[in-house]
């Protein structure tokens, strides 16, 4: 197992190289000149050209990429084109905000989704099942930003309980995390339910039931563990999705996270900021994936035995 | 009822001759599911609306016709769903919006299921090096936030309906690959696959005939949500200014551009929002029904 | 069963981890945070739609940054809210000859780091501006700065340059401290040191910037102790923040929210003119826009009043010239093109486009511009011109309009200095084609001459004459469709007193106090 984890960590290197290469390619070959953007609406063409040369944008693509990799290995991600800040320190300041938001969002989603999904599946077609499935449908069909605005209207404007924007105190995280987590909660609920249903119909569950094992034990011991394999995948995917997809929520709540920074940077053609944020996100996401795979091994011994081969 | 042990081999042999009757069987079971039929009815109406949109409301003279004096009017006999910020009829826009939104949703998901599903099935079935290579490439794509991929693709290709679908489709390929792979992993060592191998079926055949149908259930669940998700992603891209070209009506974009009026003209966002919700509801009901109907293990 | 327990434990551990993370990340309530009902309120919270980019005035020229920098720095010359030029850090000045100006620096002015303002800082600042590609164009007329003694500098321009004083009032010409800049090096943008009424305290990127009263300010300490600039992206939310009392001042209230703020019992809406002008450009070098009749037809076909009512909720004034009434030498005798589709059709016919033509209009994703594009599209359809709207990313928008790949486009221009040179030269001089500002690719030798004359003449009357004539010719040539002069608005708590809007868009909060 340890060997496996080490190998996976080693794999992070090609992943990061791949990610940066793809992003660098997209950033380099999409229209929009960073030098022109930096200088704005009225910039003499000579100034733009000179700046391009200074920024090394006239060098061949591959030279630029290798220069980036070379510097990045030394821990130097350069300075933002727009703010002139050291990209690394800026992202380091903002990344935890996004991570916290996504983590709390996923925690909320898991805390709601798994129990509700299990209950729904074990009481298929009951009233509880119908209510939770309708709830899940509403949760997944509500556009993020719309839900966020509604929550603000109710809890900030109407009731005055919670702050409307920013990251001012612990209370600030509640509304954006709910906004972010709702969709994930709905998806996890549905996945848990459908996966549970599938497992419950499996032969070995029938066998267990036929043997007279109590229903509670059937669910807890036999069904749950197997049913959670696809659910873990979904939770992992959702965490990654929330990490990157927090942009809308961050915008609605003026949350000082890295998602908004990233989208702004893409549009400003601020390549250093884009690359560094993507490296951060990719690293975090790869760790989550690794965690998911380790969890797999715990819940499904068949898979574990593969790793130890 | 056949005994459990015999079932695996039995189905393999039966499937050869009874492909037709299997789908008839699925349909028969689906028909019994009232909720699924309700969903199917809604979807049918939506699809018909999309096809015959031009007969219900003229595009040039109603859908994109501005009437600035009557902007943000509430619902009335003349405008059943009210008017938007340009005084355009929201009802007519929603009728035509069905065409746009359904196309974006279905084609985007189609793209990701075909690409992602194939890759996931291959990876899961063959395992080993191939699995490693495919899944590591997927990891690379997955590690790039999908919104970034979508934004980058849209800004590279230019914002248009087609490019939006490609962007949303490509950015969710890895999810399908992973889901299909993990369900293939849990299926591939099961007895009926071994039985198929034992009677000499080749890999392609096993993947197409056995692995894919059996991995279909989670893909359908994810796919129905995915169509909805694609419609929502379009709204999200509109929210950050990368939606389809105006004045084309698209539900998500109508919702996104209507947000400043949320507190003044409720109908501007409510009706497109409802349209999205109802569509998603219908997709889910049908998806659930299909899953139950397709599940070979439910066969009586 | 054991395995199962283990799994649940891992799951719980993850959730606890997440909660702990969130607990660690939450910050203790900061002192001086606005709670709304404190006995003595001395923190002013201002919201704007974007975070500042840099607080180095010579590194950026964007609105959000300038709004913050305005509180930290001073300029040699200051412009009042009535656009009058008054002494700032320069106590007085006189013009020695056509190209030589003498400035007397105010004595006893302190920088936030305790240093005293000297002539050497002035020279350092201007030299630094000249070396910055971002703002050099504002001071490009300056040839050299010479330090006479600690409190006197001589500024020489390359040629006679009429608008020099106006340019020296631009926030981009803020005076920085040589020592502070040298010490901070590349990080100066996050460690600004100026002479202004507020000094920099902290900056949480993407979230907020905190400033604190500078007690040694040369005009005397400001009324409020702390100023916080918060970044609230969504316009709707800025209004909500005012309503919940978490914001004291919010810039750029959404047009639709204006009445709500104005009618709210605790809020006030402050409106005033701005120096911005919105226009629809046309590529004058490309068919069919190289035909004056076509350009005029388009001018007649667009109903600007409709745009102002529908998009801006009335917050704009129809433009009759590329420069607004607040700008020096505005020609108020000019008549804007009136909405007249019949005449437009006739002109199109004369130009040989009886059946109209197909074209595209480019816009970036600015919601106001998107709405304008849709209205223009509908209106031009009436005269047979089929316009496709193409939204572009800001980057490609700037790049491709600079290269002249466009047909029509929507842009705005802010004549920050309130001097016509700033508003006309870049937009209409033929040497400025493309990226420099003249995206219409408009060429008229007579206009070129008049603009050069206005730039080099020192006598205000001569300048006025040249500029009025230039405006007349430009409007008659119709290289673009002039839309409107923007009005700006700010929402504030009624308890906020003494806030004044500056037409340039950056407002000093030095005089603001709470009731």
From TrEMBL, chain A:
Query: Which residue numbers delimit the ABC transmembrane type-1 domain?
Result: 95-296
**Bilayer topology:** Multi-pass membrane protein
- Quote the cellular component terms of the Gene Ontology held in the record: plasma membrane
Molecular function as annotated in GO: nickel cation transmembrane transporter activity
UniProt entry keywords in alphabetical sequence: Cell membrane, Ion transport, Membrane, Nickel, Nickel transport, Transmembrane, Transmembrane helix, Transport
Q: Where are the transmembrane segments?
A: 9-29, 99-122, 134-161, 173-192, 227-253, 273-299
Coarse class of the protein's main subcellular location: membrane
> A Pfam family name for this chain?
BPD_transp_1
Gene3D superfamilies under this entry?
A: MetI-like
Localization in the cell: Cell membrane
Q: How does it assemble?
A: The complex is composed of two ATP-binding proteins (NikD and NikE), two transmembrane proteins (NikB and NikC) and a solute-binding protein (NikA).
Concerning its family, UniProt says: Belongs to the binding-protein-dependent transport system permease family. OppBC subfamily.
Full protein name: Nickel import system permease protein NikB
Task: Give the source species.
Answer: Paramaledivibacter caminithermalis (strain DSM 15212 / CIP 107654 / DViRD3) (Clostridium caminithermale)
Automatic annotation (TrEMBL), chain B:
Organism, by scientific name, is Paramaledivibacter caminithermalis (strain DSM 15212 / CIP 107654 / DViRD3) (Clostridium caminithermale)
GO terms (BP aspect): transmembrane transport
| Domain of life of the organism encoding this protein | Bacteria
Please give one Pfam family short name. Answer: OppC_N
Q: Give the subcellular location.
A: Cell membrane
Residue ranges of the ABC transmembrane type-1 domain?
98-287
**Which GO cellular component terms are attached?**
plasma membrane
Family, as annotated: Belongs to the binding-protein-dependent transport system permease family. OppBC subfamily.
Q: What is this protein called?
A: Peptide/nickel transport system permease protein
Q: Can you tell me where the transmembrane regions are?
A: 104-128, 140-158, 215-244, 264-287
User: Is the Protease keyword given for this protein?
Assistant: no
Automatic annotation (TrEMBL), chain C:
Question: Domain named Solute-binding protein family: which ranges?
Answer: 84-432
One GO CC annotation, please? periplasmic space
> What's one GO BP annotation on this UniProt entry?
peptide transport
Alphabetically, the GO molecular function entries are: peptide transmembrane transporter activity
Q: Which residues form a coiled coil?
A: none
Location in the cell: Cell membrane
- Signal sequence coordinates: 1-23
Q: Which InterPro entries match?
A: Peptide/Ni-bd, SBP_5, SBP_5_CS, SBP_5_dom
| Entries under PROSITE patterns matching the protein | PROKAR_LIPOPROTEIN, SBP_BACTERIAL_5
What is the membrane topology here?
Answer: Lipid-anchor
The UniProt keywords, alphabetically, are: Signal, Transport
- Give the matching PANTHER family: OLIGOPEPTIDE-BINDING PROTEIN APPA, PERIPLASMIC BINDING COMPONENT OF ABC TRANSPORTER
The family this protein is said to belong to? Belongs to the bacterial solute-binding protein 5 family.
Q: This chain belongs to which protein, by name?
A: Peptide/nickel transport system substrate-binding protein
């Amino acid at each position: 197992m340890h060997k496996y984890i080490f190998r996976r960590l080693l794999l992070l290197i090609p992943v990061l190289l791949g990610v940066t290469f793809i992003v660098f390619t997209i950033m380099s070959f999409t229209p929009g000149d960073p030098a022109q953007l930096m200088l704005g609406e009225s910039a003499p063409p000579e100034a733009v050209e000179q700046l391009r040369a200074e920024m090394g944008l006239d060098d061949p693509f591959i030279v630029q990429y290798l220069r980036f990799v070379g510097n990045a290995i030394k821990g130097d991600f350069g300075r933002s084109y727009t703010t002139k800040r050291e990209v690394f320190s800026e992202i380091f300041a903002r990344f935890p905000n996004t991570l916290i938001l996504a983590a709390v969002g996923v925690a909320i989603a898991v805390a709601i989704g798994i129990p509700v999904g299990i209950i729904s599946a074990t009481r298929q077609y009951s009233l509880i099942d119908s209510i939770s499935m309708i709830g899940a449908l509403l949760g997944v069909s509500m556009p993020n930003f719309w839900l966020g605005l509604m929550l603000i209207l109710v809890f900030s404007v109407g009731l005055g309980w919670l702050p409307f924007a920013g990251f001012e105190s612990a209370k600030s995280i509640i509304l954006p995390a709910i906004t972010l987590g709702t969709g994930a909660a709905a998806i996890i609920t549905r996945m848990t339910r459908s996966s549970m249903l599938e497992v419950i119909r499996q032969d070995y569950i029938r066998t267990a039931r036929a043997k007279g094992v109590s229903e509670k034990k059937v669910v807890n011991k036999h069904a749950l563990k197997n049913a959670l394999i696809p659910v873990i995948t979904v939770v992992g995917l959702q965490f990654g999705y929330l990490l990157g997809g927090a942009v809308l929520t961050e915008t609605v709540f003026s949350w000082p996270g890295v998602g908004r920074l990233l989208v702004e940077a893409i549009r400003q053609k601020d390549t250093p900021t884009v690359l560094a944020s993507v490296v951060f996100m990719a690293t975090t996401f790869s760790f989550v994936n690794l965690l998911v795979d380790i969890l797999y091994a715990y819940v499904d011994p068949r898979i574990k035995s593969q790793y130890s081969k | 009822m056949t005994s459990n042990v015999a079932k695996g081999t039995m189905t393999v042999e039966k499937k050869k001759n009874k492909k037709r009757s299997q789908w008839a069987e699925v349909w028969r079971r689906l028909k019994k599911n009232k909720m699924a039929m309700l969903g199917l009815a809604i979807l049918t109406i939506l699809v018909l609306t999309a096809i015959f949109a031009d007969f219900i409301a003229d595009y040039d003279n109603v859908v994109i016709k501005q009437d600035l004096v009557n902007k943000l009017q509430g619902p009335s006999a003349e405008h059943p769903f009210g008017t938007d910020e340009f005084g355009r009829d929201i009802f007519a826009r929603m009728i035509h919006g069905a065409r746009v939104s359904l196309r974006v949703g279905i084609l985007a998901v189609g793209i990701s299921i075909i690409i992602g599903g194939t890759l996931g099935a291959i990876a899961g079935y063959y395992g080993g090096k191939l699995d490693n290579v495919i899944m590591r490439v997927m990891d690379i794509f997955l590690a790039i936030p999908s919104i970034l991929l979508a934004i980058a693709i849209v800004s590279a290709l230019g914002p248009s309906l087609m490019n939006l679908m490609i962007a949303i489709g490509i950015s969710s390929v890895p999810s399908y690959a992973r889901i299909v792979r993990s369900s293939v992993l849990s299926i591939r060592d099961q007895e009926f696959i071994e039985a198929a191998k034992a009677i000499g079926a080749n890999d392609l055949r096993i993947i197409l005939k056995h692995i894919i149908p059996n991995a279909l259930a989670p893909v359908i669940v994810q796919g129905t949500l995915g169509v909805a998700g694609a419609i929502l992603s379009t709204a999200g891209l509109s929210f950050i200014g990368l939606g389809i070209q105006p004045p084309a009506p698209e539900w998500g974009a109508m919702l996104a551009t209507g947000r400043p009026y949320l507190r003044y003209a409720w109908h501007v966002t409510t009706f497109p929002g409802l349209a999205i919700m109802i569509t998603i509801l219908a997709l889910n009901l049908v998806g659930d029904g299909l899953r139950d109907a397709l599940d070979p293990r439910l066969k009586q | 069963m054991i395995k199962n327990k283990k799994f649940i434990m891992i799951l719980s551990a993850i959730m606890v981890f997440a909660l702990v993370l969130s607990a660690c990340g939450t910050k203790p309530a900061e002192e001086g945070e606005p709670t709304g009902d404190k006995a003595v309120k001395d923190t002013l919270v201002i919201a704007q739609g974007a975070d500042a980019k840099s607080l180095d005035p010579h590194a950026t020229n964007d609105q959000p940054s300038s709004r913050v920098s305005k509180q930290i720095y001073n300029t040699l010359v200051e412009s009042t809210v009535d656009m009058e030029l008054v002494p700032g850090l320069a106590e007085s000045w006189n013009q020695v000859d056509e190209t030589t100006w003498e400035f007397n620096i105010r004595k006893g002015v302190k920088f936030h780091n305790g240093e005293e303002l000297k002539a050497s800082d002035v020279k350092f600042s201007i030299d630094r501006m000249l070396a910055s590609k971002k703002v050099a164009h504002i001071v490009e007329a300056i040839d050299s700065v010479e330090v006479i003694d600690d409190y006197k500098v001589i500024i020489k321009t390359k040629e006679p340059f009429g608008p020099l004083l106006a340019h020296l009032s631009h926030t981009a010409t803020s005076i920085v401290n040589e020592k502070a800049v040298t010490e901070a090096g590349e990080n100066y943008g996050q460690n600004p040191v100026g002479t202004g009424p507020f000094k920099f305290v902290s900056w949480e990127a993407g979230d907020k910037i905190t400033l604190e009263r500078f007690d040694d300010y040369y005009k005397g300490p400001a009324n409020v102790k702390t100023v916080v600039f918060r970044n609230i992206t969504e316009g709707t939310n800025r209004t909500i923040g005012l309503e919940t009392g978490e914001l004291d001042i919010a810039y750029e209230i959404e047009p639709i929210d204006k009445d709500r703020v104005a009618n709210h019992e605790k809020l006030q809406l402050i409106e005033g003119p701005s120096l911005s002008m919105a226009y629809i450009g046309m590529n004058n070098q490309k068919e069919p826009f190289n035909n004056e009749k076509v350009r005029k037809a388009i001018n007649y076909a667009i109903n600007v009043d409709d745009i102002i009512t529908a998009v801006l909720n009335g917050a704009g004034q129809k433009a009759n010239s590329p420069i607004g009434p607040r700008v020096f030498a505005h020609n108020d005798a000019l008549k804007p093109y009136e909405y007249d589709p019949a005449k437009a059709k006739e002109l199109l016919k004369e130009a040989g486009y009886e059946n109209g033509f197909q074209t595209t209009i480019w816009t970036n994703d600015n919601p106001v511009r998107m709405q304008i594009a849709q209205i223009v599209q509908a209106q031009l359809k009436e005269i047979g011109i089929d316009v496709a709207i193409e939204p572009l990313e800001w980057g490609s928008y700037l790049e491709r309009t600079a290269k002249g790949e466009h047909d029509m486009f929507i842009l705005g221009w802010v004549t920050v200095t309130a001097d016509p040179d700033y508003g006309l030269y870049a937009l209409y001089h033929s040497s400025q084609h493309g990226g420099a500002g003249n995206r219409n690719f408009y060429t008229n030798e007579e206009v070129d001459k008049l603009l050069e004359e206005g730039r080099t003449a020192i006598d205000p009357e001569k300048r006025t004459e040249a500029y009025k004539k230039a405006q007349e010719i430009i409007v008659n040539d119709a290289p673009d469709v002039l839309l409107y002069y923007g009005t700006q608005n700010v929402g504030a708590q009624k308890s906020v007193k003494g806030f004044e809007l500056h037409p340039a868009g950056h407002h000093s909060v030095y005089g603001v106090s709470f009731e």
